[in-house]
Fold each of these.
Amino acid sequence: MKALSIRNLKKIYNNGFVALKGIDLDVEAGDFFALLGPNGAGKSTTIGIISSLVNATSGSVSIFGHDLRHDRARAKSCIGLVPQEVNFNQFETVKNILLNQAGYYGTPRKIALQRTEQCLKQMDLWDKRDMVSRRLSGGMKRRVMIARALVHAPKLLILDEPTAGVDIEIRRSMWKMMQEVNRQGTTIILTTHYLEEAESLCRNIAIINHGLIVENSDMASLLARLNIDYFVLDLAEPIDAVPVIEGYQIERVSDKVLNVGVPKEYGLNTLFKLLTERNIKVISLKNRTNRLEQLFMDLIDQESDESLQ
Amino acid sequence: MNHAIALRTIVKKEVQRFIRIWPQTLLPPAITTALYFLIFGKLIGDRIGTVGGASYMDYIVPGVILMSVISHSYANVVSSFYSTKFQRNIEELLVSPVPNWVILSGYVSGGIIRGLLVGLVVALISRVFADIAINNIAVTLSIAVLTATVFSLAGFINAVFADSFDDISIIPNFILTPLSYLGGVFYSVDMLPDVWQTVSLGNPILYMINAFRYGLIGVTDVDVTIAFVMTGGFSIVLILFSLFLLHKGVGIKN
Ligand SMILES: Nc1ncnc2c1ncn2[C@@H]1O[C@H](COP(=O)(O)OP(=O)(O)OP(=O)(O)O)[C@@H](O)[C@H]1O
Ligand SMILES: [Mg+2]
């Protein structure tokens, strides 16, 4: 069963700007899916069309088999949306925001009250239930939007940069929560600019750039495509000359810091052995960039190179 | 999908909104109309005598009530729907499976309820100044509801097209208020020169006010049936137009 199926989706905004140039995308039910791309790539436009906030110019979208054009009400019932920007009534209390949303989905009052309590507790907002939403902090507002999206127990949860501008503690708790929701069977589509977040949470991924999908695969095989890992080594003592070791790209950053490119087939053991032989003592190492970030940059750069030609 | 629950949710939200801000929504009409009754009805009215057989105070009460119904049903929907658009919480409705007719009914009901509630407040105040025995309750209530419906719908359409807070005050200030004053709230068209009598008959609000006046005190300048046909007709046209706008997503979808 596909949670989402998009075919040849195009969007031209009223001002003539072509935001989506014909994208195809499939998300399986139960997946935790990352939709990534640089600013202005078309992520929110895609999400807007899926969730009926933006009219598509052409193409088709179906959600759990319900075509958006012919069976919109059922398709809508399957979706919970956390939009990129705050869009609730700032003068309403937190509790009423959820109760109203449940009402719009036709949830009977009694169940709506239960669901509201459940979702607010899950988002750690129960003690803020009677607060006027305008008074909440930015991170709390985001959590209100997540709670609101969950109140009708959607089968597909779409989150448009839910962790932007949220402190690390809350971000971690959001990750936990998303994983929990996903484990309970809800399909999740997540957009984020924190690639390590996508890497650790998501099983499948699509990268969109200039309104086109430039990559769509599972995370593991995408990452496997990276054949060189980049590390930063901290050394115990300053070195005079950069060691030259066949197969490894080594650059000096400072006296006691080296950048090393390690091809997958060579691995780290040999590197350490050879460094030890040269009397270079490594105290610690870390990834220079996040691996997904590396790939992401490669793909996006490739794109812009091509568009320059 | 249970549309009754969605409708009730919207109506409740709308009513709670204007009740919550009652100093802006319910109090001002009470004060303004009390002043109308005092100044026009009492101080000036005593010198005017009777119009169409009714004391001047009795004559202006229906018009003042209906004028409040008009401006408040309009104001409620235009400001509520515009701020829903402006704050983008309209998106809460757009993502959920609420049909457009439920959205429209919900907002329009909110406007009708506010209009009628304000009308009731004004009617109660008028009892301090005039003692009116209702002539025809069915006409009174039905024309009030129809009028509130027409202007709630008009407010809705205004909000759909509005791009700024200025846009939601232009029509009330430059069209509704003048048309209401010229709609015979304070005078009978008989008092006007011939030309202006004819011109006045092109003003729909004149028919509504006279029908309402007929319902309350049995005095009217126009045929009440025409008033009903006209307000009913306006309601239908405005409903269809509003649904068309929602369907196209004008002003709310890209
Ligand atoms: N209403 C609009 N009218 C015209 N152009 C628009 C409109 N909304 C978005 N765009 C353009 O469409 C493109 C895609 O925008 P979109 O919001 O989908 O990007 P995004 O991938 O979500 O970016 P970000 O990461 O910054 O949120 C951008 O170039 C944007 O300027
Ligand atoms: Mg975006």
Amino acid sequence: MSRGRQRTGMVRSYTPTGGVARPTRRTLDDATLLMVDEEKELRGLEPEPYRVMELCRPGRLSLAEVSYHLHLPRTVTTVIVAHLVDSGHLIARAPVPAASVHDTALLERILDGLHAL
Amino acid sequence: MGSTLSDRDYVPDRVSQSVKIVVLGSFGVGKTTYVRAVSEIRSMHTEEAMTQAGEAIDDLSGVRDKTTTTVTMDFGRLTLTTDLVLYLFGAPGQDRFLPMVTQLMDGALGALVLVDTRRLDQSFTSIDLVERAGLPYAIAVNTFPDAPTYADTEIRDSLTMENSTPLVRIDARVRDSAKRALIALISNMLGRPHLETAP
Ligand SMILES: Nc1nc2c(ncn2[C@@H]2O[C@H](COP(=O)(O)OP(=O)(O)OP(=O)(O)O)[C@@H](O)[C@H]2O)c(=O)[nH]1
Ligand SMILES: [Mg+2]
């Protein structure tokens, strides 16, 4: 058996060391929208991050959708995506939380959207 | 796999903002049914490995010898406008997944609590959770055929609901009916009356 990388290397290499989580990782939500930075090279990416980039390239998806389409556990997806956000491959937009809905404009848009469905 | 997704699996290109609404309720109350009825695309789910204590496992090293369980979480999507998308997440019903539900509520715009009049007392856990999280919420009575019918005031009393909390009656299997719970929630957040008449 090779003494190189372990099979679990994908996950382990994205697991923060020293028990300190990367900042992005804590701010990634299931409903966070992910967008690809087209300028970034995919060469050199490991297979799992590469698959995430391939999936996201044609259009926008949330973190939860990426998990679903790639059949990856949510937490594993979060770790991979956090790394890709830190490297600039992905751009993440967090959902608008209740606490920051001061302007009614967003709520109005949601309501209009619901009525129109 | 990624390469086989169709255009409509993706969020439209101009959409740059998302909101999240969590659907809670006791075991078997109709959360999965609700998310499926309202979603514009086939409903989806995520999977997560959990410890017996209900904590999500995000560090795969060192947990292999602990007893783990897999929890599935349903979610759906609704494109509301050309630049806004709504994600609906069905929280797992069992109490042992509470830590995960708490995490799910983080970043949410609001919540819906589905209740079944045959088991009103089983709704308290969910109501407590959303209240503790400080989330705006609406109560949606999922109407099952053999369930006893109560007046709104009786339900409000049983659940010790604030008068300002919206109460709607829905059929979680029917999109237009299910949608009314979301409309009631958002209307209420806007400070609008949400006129609903009991069936
Ligand atoms: N008659 C009627 N049946 C419903 C309605 N909503 C759900 N059901 C049925 O109730 C059962 C449970 O519904 P689910 O959607 O699986 O409930 P759930 O809350 O996701 O259940 P757990 O995830 O196990 O907690 C299913 O057999 C549904 O078909 C409703 O509005 N009316
Ligand atoms: Mg379910």
